[in-house]
Amino acid sequence: MRKGRAIMPLPRLFIPFGAGVLLYLDYGELSSGFWGIGVAGFVLFTCMILTKDGLVFPKYKMLCGCFSALLLCLTGYFLAWQQHGYDRAGHFRHLCEAGGYFLVQIDEPLSERANSFQAVAEVLFAGNDSLQQPAEGRLMLYFEKDSLVGDLQYGDRILLEGRYSKVSAPQNPEAFNYQRFLARQHIFHSMYVRSGEWLLADRNRGSTIMHLALFLRQRALDTLAENHLHGRDFAVISALLLGYREYLDEDLRREFAGAGAMHILCVSGLHVGIIFMVLSKIFSFLHRIRGGHFLKAICILLCIWFYAAITGFSPSVQRASVMFSFVSLGQSFQRPTNIYNTLAASAFVLVASDPAIIKHIGFQLSYLAVISIVSLQPWFEKLITVRNILLSKAWAIITVSLAAQLATGPLALHYFNQFPNYFLLTNLAVIPLASLVIYSALISLALSPVPVLGSLAGQCLAFIVRLLHHSVSFIEGLPGSVTTGVYISFSETLLFFIFLVFLFIYLMAVRRGFLLAALGALLLMSVSWTWRASQNSQQRYFVVYHVNRETAVDFTTARQTVFLASAEMVSNERQKRFTVEANRLRRGSSDEQAKLVIGDALGLHIPGGVQGCGDLICFHGLLILVMHDQSAIYTLLSSAGKKMLEFSGDSLYANNISHADTCARTGSLKQTGSSLESASLWPYRVDYLLVTGDINLDMNALLHIVHPGRVLIDGSIRPWRASAMEDNLVELGVDVWNTHLQGAYVREL
Q1: Rounded to an integer, what distance in angstroms lies between the CA atom of residue 313 and that of residue 617?
Q2: 268: buried, middle or exposed (CB in 10 Å: 19+, 13-18, 0-12)?
Q3: I want to staple 487 with a disulfide (CB 3.0 to 4.6 A). Which of 70, 74, 210, 585 is the partner?
Q4: Which CATH number do you get for residue 104?
């Protein structure tokens, strides 16, 4: 055991270092006492490990180890703090005043979106007409589409007005946190730039290496396009070989994700690993000469990083290139090396250069997959002895896939809430085909200067890519190809990993203590699931989500949900996935019992504890009036003579529905103990008034008819109108919730 520890020091050193990085990223700046403890620990550590002869006191080794871990933790914390530029004095948010401007440099090629061009920019200077000073920080820019914006390239410098805004937090519960996603890239502000609001100051001022890399990538894309690759085949090869995913549409992403082949479209360890193995074979002849191992390592490193340049230095390729660079260097010493040390060394380099990378999903999945393959795949492979060459290759793919999926599966479930059931079948088909695609693509690019040979190689490549795509599409289309709607919390994910680790240590070492630890983790995980299921079975709540120009409301009882929304929102499954699905998964209420369109008459016996009449809804004793247009007020008016109300100059007349008739139509509403029971005179009292549909109402007149406990203004109201409406209601002393400013409204019962 001590020997094993001696040859694996780097993993044990990386753990406290990574913990320090996570400490800052998750909790920010800590009190000065934390630094005081660190300094005191460092002084004690120095005093205890050294004697006058420079030797370590044996009896203090454990204590010295603790202080070493503390020192590494502080180092990681300091590096993360030092590279987090938001609070620095030189950040542009401290320097740009009203009426000022920025000089920024485009930090990446523009990405085309539906209504804009998107790019990340580095702020170089901030100031005004009289003062200009150096600044730092990154901005996410959204350019209005025009003919000039399309000509902007990496390295161009432009002048912008200092009108930026902080990236907002998610406005719906459990929704994807785009603010946190950008913060991990050191981006905290964004700006929408209209046509004519920017001025080109200079061109081609970025890194020469990056310019070369982007030129090589574009040249490779042009070559592939010339060699009979078009449409979706071109999109697949662009992502698979070069990591360029701009051409992937949503259907392609869904197919590959559902089949468990999304890792094929992310240039990462698999792709660089294939190239590394090919290069190892190609340069194996160098072993015959003196110093050939070092020369081979240098040649492999140059080729790997040249490939990384062709991909435009995408983050996933950089991770894989660093990892295999350390592997190549380790092999060049011709001494026994430990793969865990190599992986830890590469992780040290990556995290030290960019501490926020430790929170990236790709970083976590990459290292988990490699560690699991190295640890478990040999053990799996020994379980069955296969003598047939083809079957042994298939068995090797199965064992690699199984090992990688065991490590990445729990984390993928936590992040993506789905699991590909046929991942073994997918990898049996996809990994050999992906290898053929990479080999064929490299040959096609190499032969492209020769027209006939390049064209022939391109046709072969197009055929293999098409076969790969059809294989993935077929597997994704099989019944039960993917399990969706799975939710496990972060703590449950950790318990899952602990269970797997101790279980496999037990299977390999056959020690009873590890089995008990694995069962204990499984028991805690089961308790967590049971407790969460019990909580979900008792829940009653409704949510008014924030959706731009649309309305979406969930009424949830236990696991049943009634969805009330605008007509467009009810049928827009993509928008629902982004808006409501995450919250439903978190609460275990994805079972949609009914879909109701605002404006349609509501029946009295809707599932999920919802009852209604017209635009009046009762949810477990709460009365909610939905005001979606001016006619929605009709059912509230008495028939004792037609009454005229003034709403923004428009005259509205009551229809002939009596108040008693309204009460009768809502049936059991009188039995709920709601305020409707005693509402014989105006104003009509409700618990909530939901204003939606972008109507323009005079709130003074409306409050003579309706007396709400709280007014909810949703995202379908235009922002400027919602703000004016909110100000008016506040002046009238009405409690109001504006989802534009406050996000979704959640009411627990």
Answers
A1: 55
A2: buried
A3: 585
A4: 2.40.50
Same domain, yes or no, for 595 and 620? yes
Provide the sign of the torsion angle of the four alpha carbons 181, 185, 188, 192, taken in this order.
negative
In the numeric block, which tokens belong to residue 277? 């193995």
- The answer to whether the CB of 118 falls within 8 A of the CB of 141 is yes
Q: Confirm whether 387 is domain-assigned.
A: no
pLDDT > 70 in the chain, percent: 82
Tokens of 27: 């909790």
The reply to whether 377 falls in a domain is no
pLDDT digits (tens, 9 = 90+) for 37-78: 666 666 655 555 555 444 455 555 666 677 778 888 888 888
One domain for residues 520 and 567: no
Is residue 388 domain-resident?
Answer: no
**Domain termination site, one of 443, 467, 484:** 484
Q: What is the CA radius of gyration of the chain?
A: 31
Residue 284 and residue 302 share a domain: yes
Distance of alpha carbon 372 from alpha carbon 356, whole angstroms: 23
Mean pLDDT along residues 162-179: 88
Are residues 611 and 707 both part of a single domain? yes
Question: For the residues 518-544, what does the mean pLDDT come to?
Answer: 91
Rounded to whole angstroms, the Cα distance separating 656 from 698 reads: 23
CB 136 within 8 A of CB 91: yes
Please name which of 361, 365, 410, 349 lies closest in space to residue 181, comparing C-alpha atoms: 361
462 and 510 fall within a common domain: no
Residues 506 and 556 in one domain: no
End-to-end Cα, the chain, rounded Å: 56
The pair of three-digit structure tokens given for residue 58, joined into one six-digit string: 């044996």
Query: What's the number of domains the chain is made of?
Result: 5
Task: Check residue 657 and give its pLDDT.
Answer: 32
Total number of residues shown for the chain: 749
Q: Give per-residue pLDDT as tens, 612-629.
A: 555 778 888 888 888 876
Whole-model pTM?
0.80
Q: How far is CA 618 from CA 212, 408, 555, 565, in A?
A: 64, 45, 10, 16
Residues 219-257 pLDDT 10s: 888 888 887 778 888 888 888 888 788 888 888 888 888
Q: Are residues 625 and 596 in the same domain?
A: yes
> 21 Cβ partners below 8 Å, 6+ apart?
76, 77, 79, 80, 351, 355, 358
Domain range for 342 is: 211-364+418-484
Indicate whether 392 belongs to any domain: no
Instruction: Give me the mean pLDDT over the 161-177 stretch.
Output: 88
Look at residues 703, 721, 707 and name the one whose alpha carbon lies nearest to residue 679.
Answer: 707
Residue 716: HSE in the Cβ half-sphere, 13 Å Cα cutoff: 24
